[in-house]
Amino acid sequence: MTALEAVALATILGAVLTAGLRWMRVAQREHYLSGSVTRFALRWWASSSLNLALGAVGVIAAVLTFVWPAVAFAVALVLLVSPVGLGLRGRTSKLRWTRRLRTLAAGAATLAALVVALSGTFAGLSGAVRAGALLALLVPVLVDVALLALAPLEDGLAERHVIEARTKLARVRPRVVAVTGSFGKTTTKGYIAHFVGDRLNTLASPASFNNRPGLARTVNEHLGPGTEVFVAEMGTYGRGEIRALCSWIVPEISVITAIGPAHLERFRSLDRTLEAKSEIAERARVVVLNVDDERLSGLAERLEREGKQVVRASGADPHADVAVIAGGGALELHVAGRLVGAAPVATGEQPPALSNAACAAAVAIELGTPPGEIPARLAGLPSPPNRLQRHLAEGGYVVLDDTFNSNPAGARMAIRRLGTEAPEGRRVLVTPGMVELGRTQAEENARLAAEASALVTDLVAVARTNRRALVEGAERSSPGTGGGAGQSGAEVHVVDVLPQAVEWVRRHLGPGDAVLYENDLPDHFP
Fold first, then answer.
1. Reported CATH class of domain 173-378
2. What is the mean pLDDT of residues 234-253?
3. Whole-angstrom distance, CA of residue 62 vs CA of residue 422
């Protein structure tokens, strides 16, 4: 029996290693936030009847090891093949053996070895087998515990880079513009650089480098001696993070683009979201707010009562301090209620959220750009990658790529845009739905599908995360056949992965048709 138990222990430890690779990839994709791995594990085990059944088998087998330790072989087998759908290497988000991941792997392995060794010491080889079997099922928890234990070390390592960045900022002394918001911050950051880049040497934080290590890296690697303006995008998952960023990247001008349900799963409420985002205003000389957002309009009044200089920006109200308004095939710039100028812009080339352009124009004016120079640049606003970019496919149909970080407001704007692209043809919405919306996620996705069904002919729901909500939402509208324009409701199709949706589109669409790809979940989501 001892030899069999030894083999069982080796097998179960192999399963722990395999599961560790699977769940460390999730940790890496979720920015090494403790608690995120267990949360995703619960989602995966509940994602299908097959995974629920396999999970149940694993739990029962682990319990039975207390009677027959050899049943650990069954636990190992379950962990080697499941949860079904969550691969070890990944298709869209592969495991990258960075320094931080190697540290996490060492920490998790040390914890696992300690648990098994202590069990073996006090309960013999059979005790070690039982501990290993339970540990195999709890690898996501193990990874989260390792993340929590390693957090002080990682903070200490990051602080060295922050100190270096703080010193460099003090030496170069650029004018700092800090931008945050539930959505629209990356687009607004790009617009600011577009408006002021010809006049001032401007550095904008690249991609979505909007957290502590990303911004420190941006400063240390890209801030040159002649940099006059540094536009820093700032993201947050909770209160205190932006305040900490602003303690060493001290903004002269701060911008809040919108308050919405993005990351509501972490914030719990929009009031907490507003509280966290408004930290960006505390040190700023000037605060630019998108007052088309009701919560930010209220914040503007509060900040002014506190003595802060506030610039109200709008994409709808020409009487705001700075406004960018669409009208007559042009984008108009209004400053203090006065029309400054306009630039002809085709309807399909207008930015999806004019408030982002208004916020950026307000920043440019505060940085010294004459208002009269801005309208000419409204015609060439840059389109960030995967944010409602328009392409023409080889098959002759229009492709709208809006696959980056979907949110309810942006998704609705994109769907309305889709409705204008193929008024007489087939209009297809391909989406896995929206995530990180907390308790509102199912209802928001159902509402989106219901509203989309009035404008699209086909809805292709990708993956399982929001499939039920999307299908139920689409069913709120009258069912259609998906054959052409003018019908009530959309035909619903379900696929497991995005490539299947792309293949469906290629088979069914042609000239005169259009497809919108709205959001794209990496494959660590079920």
1. alpha beta
2. 93
3. 56
440-459 mean pLDDT: 92
pLDDT digits (tens, 9 = 90+) for 11-44: 999 999 999 999 999 999 888 999 999 999 999 9
Burial group, residue 444, by CB count within 10 angstroms (0-12, 13-18, 19+): buried
Q: Which residues contact 24 (CB under 8 A, 6 or more apart)?
A: 95, 101, 104, 105, 108, 143
Per the DSSP assignment, residues forming a β-bridge with 325 are 332
pTM of the model: 0.85
Q: Tell me the two tokens of residue 372.
A: 């009269």
193 closest CA partner among 226, 235, 233: 233
Terminal Cα distance for the chain, rounded: 40
Beta strands in 211-266 (DSSP E): 229-233, 253-256
**What's the CATH superfamily of 389-518?**
Mur ligase, C-terminal domain (3.90.190.20)
pLDDT of res. 347? 65
Closest CA to 86 of 462, 520, 523: 523
What's phi and psi for 18, nearest 5 deg?
Answer: -65, -45
Please report where in the chains the tokens 């993201």 appear, as a residue. Answer: 235
